[in-house]
Amino acid sequence: MAVVLKNDLLCVTIDEPGKVYNGSRFDHTGNISQITLDGKWTFCTGEVTNGFDPRSNGRGLYNEFGISQPVGYNDCGIGQKFPKIGVGLLTRTSSKAYDFFAPYQAEPFKIHFEYDNSRIKFIVLPQDCRGYSVKLVKTVTLSENSFKIGYELENTGTKRIVTNEYCHNFIAINNSLIDANYILTVPCKTTGTSDMNEAINPEKAVELNTNTLSFRLTPKSDFFFSPLANFQTMGEWILSHEGFRIAIKESTDFIPELMNVWGTGHVVSPELFVKIDLMPGETRKWQRKYEFYHL
Question: How many other C-beta atoms are found inside a 10 Å radius of the C-beta of residue 253?
């Protein structure tokens, strides 16, 4: 059911493809359900607390391709299939716009994986769908107090692939509620709410400063900011808990096209998006690194 990568500092639990989460939204490979530092500090929580369903809800570090740019959806007729990268061939059921929350019927891709104590590699085999076809290779590699997630996406079809990918980081350190102890820091200036596409903060629980996001109180409802920041250099964010003196950092080897942050009272999720534009035969590689440490 799960593969555990482990060393003296870090323990990373990764669910086997389709064994826990088998919905139509998140990539089925590399679903990191828990991360533990020093045998004591945990970082992952669930998307919801009441009625959590691992078949449809996310938890920990789940990535997704095409939340707003689904491959092949716009030229897909009702009853036809379109590919959701890392998931399978989904069936379009209506003339409405793509809805990432909707439970589409899915024909899963074939996925192979191999692993040892410090590394797991997933290979999602290509399958043609009206000229759309990709091969995805994802590798999670553990090293001391960090791990890297490497992606390699090859366009094996005859049509152009234009989409994006992000990791939905469902984080709560030691399952602590989101409160004034948490600070999210980015290396660049945060976007003013008047310049955002969306700024949802109904209780004014979230406070934006020059390069930080903090909390006045524990949110009772969802908050969401898009974009939180506009990067000119490689992506990075740090989420720290000032009471525990513990932090998690994500850094990328790409310049994000977008950074969003979503959360509610029990979870906060910073999200760095990578832009993908592949002509037939082209391959794109990118990497995310996560570090866990004491302040």
Answer: 14
Number of C-alpha atoms within 13 angstroms, CB side, residue 162? 4
Sign of CA dihedral 255, 43, 51, 18: positive
Token pair, residue 197, equals 């596409």
Q: What are 60-104's pLDDT values in tens digits?
A: 999 999 999 999 999 999 999 999 999 999 999 999 999 999 999
Confidence class for position 106, pLDDT limits 50, 70, 90: very high
CA distances from 118 to 147, 210, 250, 253 (A): 9, 38, 19, 21
